[in-house]
Amino acid sequence: xxxxxxxxxxxxxxxxxxxxxxxxxxxxxxxxxxxxxxxxxxxxxxxxxxxxxxxxxxxxxxxxxxxxxxxxxxxxxxxxxxxxxxxxxxxxxxxxxxxxxxxxxxxxxx
Length: 110
Fold this sequence. Notes:
alpha+beta
């Protein structure tokens, strides 16, 4: 399956510095639900994978190995980053949002 994605990172603000690199459960327990307004799009593109979880894992590998990131100057994918995926096989495309956690990704309701 081919997904369109955005790779989003927390904006560099004093308020966001408190939640940067925190895992999902701690963030939700201490700061409330994930606020997508705190993020900016670091990169976008398409990724092929059999399901959403594997698409996120492929993107994690891509943004950490960094061997095919021509023109990308941002930091690697880390805990607290977000991936938006659009399943283009549906009409209209179905969007899901995934929070990069300590291990794996957690689907975030938007």
